[in-house]
Design goal:
By secondary structure, this protein is of the alpha+beta class. It has six helices and 16 strands. Helix 3 packs antiparallel against helix 4. It is globular and about 70 Å long.
Length: about 300
């Protein structure tokens, strides 16, 4: 790709993210984990820490926008929400500063977005403008596809042969085969857990893929949208520890989601901000999936 070329299906980042580290805690390690995590789905950042100050400078090279889901600017916003969520409720949260900008290139169109942060919340300003974009390279010929398929089959046969001799390698090979399969939303279940009285959660199959899923949270008629409603709901969960914890998390505007594989093993967890459910009936959120692991169940936990 030539310098300045606007290749369809890619995104470019510019600007800077800055903030302060709290005097106590492990935020620096969490920031490094966040950089690694978002790098796997597309955006690449360089973390620099000087004393109690840190900055995140985006790599200005284009990356595939598909990893952020449909409407890549919203996926980028969700990633920033998760970044801000690393702070917790401390005063440093309000000192987080952003001049981050993105340009996503679609067919004949450039979508420009500015991401600002005020009071610990991400704000988007987006505009679309006509642009001279470059289409994807032409698909390879049928003959090339056939040749590649034959080579792939030969390598697969070799791997299977080796796997039959070594049980450990066999397990690894089949795990790779499993993760290479197309994403099927019906193979993944989502459980609202102790939050069920107040919200439901479902998978948006069209916007989800092997790198991540889009979950849609919908509030029920009993969702507490005010402090008074939270107080009124407290007696109903007085005898349930998980219920009380879930209600407290709703008051904080955050929930936690655990990932499990087919054997019921915990393979990951994420925190999600859902405070905006008090303003809108449904709220989508993008949740990246781990590499080389098939997640079969996601559970909302206190």
């Amino acid at each position: 790709m030539e310098l300045g070329e606007k290749l369809e299906g890619t995104m470019v980042l510019d600007g800077l993210l800055q903030g302060r580290l709290p005097p106590m805690g492990d935020l620096a390690d969490k920031l490094r984990e966040w950089v690694t995590f978002v790098g796997k789905i597309g955006p690449r950042f360089n973390l620099e820490i000087r004393g109690q100050q840190f900055s995140l400078l985006p790599d200005d090279r284009p990356f595939e926008a598909a990893g952020l889901g449909a409407g890549a600017e919203h996926g980028m916003s969700q990633a920033l929400e998760q970044l801000i969520g690393l702070y917790g409720p401390g005063p440093e949260r309000s000192q987080f500063y952003s001049t981050l900008r993105s340009s996503e290139f679609r067919k004949g169109l450039e979508v420009q977005t500015v991401y600002t942060i005020a009071d610990g919340k991400v704000r988007l300003q987006t505009r679309s403008m006509e642009a001279a974009t470059t289409a994807r390279p032409d698909p390879i010929s049928i003959r090339q596809k056939l040749k590649m398929a034959l080579v792939g089959l030969g390598m697969a046969a070799l791997l299977v042969g080796v796997a039959m001799l070594f049980p450990g390698v066999r397990a690894m090979v089949w795990q790779v085969f499993e993760t290479a399969r197309p994403f099927n939303a019906t193979e993944l279940t989502v459980d609202a857990g102790p939050y069920a009285p107040w919200l439901t959660v479902a998978i948006d199959a069209e916007k989800s893929h092997r790198k991540g899923v889009v979950l849609v949270f919908t509030r029920t008629k009993d969702f507490p949208m005010t402090d008074a409603a939270l107080d009124a709901a407290a007696p109903s969960v007085e005898k349930s520890v998980k219920g009380r914890m879930a209600l407290e998390n709703l008051a904080r505007g955050k929930i936690r989601i655990e990932y499990f594989d087919k054997d019921g093993k915990l393979v990951g967890e994420r925190e999600a901000r859902i405070a905006d459910l008090s303003k809108t009936e449904t709220l989508p959120g993008f949740f990246p999936l781990p590499d080389q692991i098939i997640v079969t169940r996601m559970v909302l936990v206190p």
